[in-house]
Amino acid sequence: MKAFLCRFATLALMFALFAPAGMAAAAPTSKDEFKQQTSTGLVAAEKLTQITGIAISPLAGVGGVGAYRYWKAAPEQRAGLSWYAQPWFFLPALLVVGVCVAKDAAGPVVPTSLKKPLDLIELFENKASGIIATGAVVPMALEIFEAVKPSGPSAGLGLAGAHFAAIDLSWLGDLFMVPLALLVYGVVWLFSHTINVLILVSPFTTVDTALKSLRGAVLGSVVGLPAISDKAGAVWAGIIVLVSLLVAPWAFRTTIFGSIFAWDLVSRRKHWWTPKSDCVWAFSACKVGKAPHRAFGRVGRNERGELTFTWRPWLVLAPRTEVLPAGNYVIGRGLIHSEILRVEGESAPDIFNLPPRCNGHEEAVAAAIGLREVRPVGLRAFWAALKGLFTGQAATA
Predict the structure, then answer these.
(1) How many angstroms separate the Cα of 193 from the Cα of each of 3, 235, 251, 273?
(2) CA distances (Å), 239 to each of 142, 181, 333, 353, in order?
(3) In this structure, how many other beta carbons lie within 10 angstroms of the beta carbon of residue 183?
(4) pLDDT tens, 194-217?
(5) What is the C-alpha separation between 290 and 75, in angstroms, rounded?
(6) Nearest residue to 371 via CA among 329, 326, 342, 324
(7) Domain range holding 342?
(8) Could you say which of 30, 110, 304, 325 is the most buried, measured as most Cβ atoms within 10 Å of its Cβ?
(9) Does residue 313 lie in a domain region?
């Protein structure tokens, strides 16, 4: 599946960049038409870099492109520009982006207790702006083939010799470019959004700063490189798209992980959630059979009493069930989220991460899936040991 997507994207990008220019190069009949035809490849390259930049940071990308188009347009043409090129949209969008940049710039001196809620808000903002920006991607894709629609004596895509001069096949370009643009936008946004998820779950300020710097550097290169060379900018954007395709399955699982964790925390779901009597939803913390890391599914028991994990690839494909190896499985009660551990002598690696909704329900979850022990882990384990040190009472599971 991944190899097929990579081949498809490679061929599609090559077609988007070079095919329009090749189609337009057929027998130019006037100087103006020749200029229009030879610029088609540059239009495709420009739109590819714009779509890639918008996907990396939707609100900044759409707001920046809109402001640029508004500034370049003549005063009498501004009223007819797209919605994202109107001041009522791009001015508030850029203001929100400025607030986010100021937050990131002050990150090293802002306490983690204050910064994480702001990162949580930015995560939801990125989701909302990603949906809004989709409305700007489709017209950008259509603009690529607007440059090569038949006109004048050469209408019909140069098929006059084959007695098809009256046939206009330009709609095929529109039909092809819109799915391609959405694919490019989707995979790059998914990869970029994963950085927001990693920033949210990372407990270290230095890691947060490094991730934000990486995202800013990539966005800056996508915006700045076309100023030097349109082709270089398009090639760099194509590389980003291919890398995003390669990591798309991992990015998708990580995005689902971060989205569910964020929703559970914001909605305070643990206060109104009730555990089921036979299973619990969880994320795999390691590879479980054929289930990859961070696969989302249900942990339960089968007819033979074995512990199982049922999951769906991409959340929509046919369900698969993995039987866990026999062992001593326990619930680890954490501060932010709890875990399912497998005790192996002195070590107890985590096998599943439970969403925050399970906090405070560890005993009920253990009873639902047939586990007999709940023990503190992480900061809770440290606090239990510290409490036992000063009170003389050993921490009990």
Answers:
(1) 23, 22, 8, 27
(2) 22, 15, 43, 33
(3) 16
(4) 988 888 777 677 777 788 888 888
(5) 60
(6) 329
(7) 271-391
(8) 110
(9) yes
Residues 154 and 302 in one domain: no
Give the number of other CB atoms < 10 A from CB of residue 276: 13
List Cβ neighbours of 382 (8 Å cut-off, separation of 6 or more): none
Specify whether 250 is located in the same domain as 277: no
Place of tokens 């990693």: 198
Nearest of 292, 294, 325 to residue 308 by alpha carbon: 325
Sign, CA dihedral 245-246-249-255, equals negative
Total domains present in the chain: 2
Pair 175, 69 in one domain: yes
Contact assessment for residue 157 and residue 210, using Cβ atoms and an 8 Å cutoff: no
137-186: pLDDT as tens digits: 777 776 665 554 544 444 444 444 444 444 454 555 556 777 888 888 88
User: Are residues 318 and 227 located together in one domain of the fold?
Assistant: no
Does residue 44 surpass a pLDDT of 80? Answer: no
- The answer to whether position 252 is within a domain reads yes
18 with 156, same domain?
A: yes
Beta strands of the chain (E only): which ranges? Answer: 279-284, 296-301, 307-311, 320-323, 328-333, 339-343, 350-353, 374-376
Q: How far apart are alpha carbons 287 and 294 in whole angstroms?
A: 8
Judgement on whether residues 216 and 286 belong to the same structural domain of the protein: no
Same domain flag for 191 and 312:
no
Domain boundary among 263, 286, 306: 263
Statement to judge: residues 283 and 180 lie in one domain: no
Given the DSSP bridges, would you call strands 328-333 and 339-343 parallel, antiparallel or unpaired? Answer: antiparallel
pLDDT digits (tens, 9 = 90+) for 220-273: 888 888 878 888 888 898 899 999 999 999 999 999 998 898 889 888 899 999
Please report whether residue 25 resides in a domain. yes
Determine contact, residues 291/384, Cβ cutoff 8 Å.
no
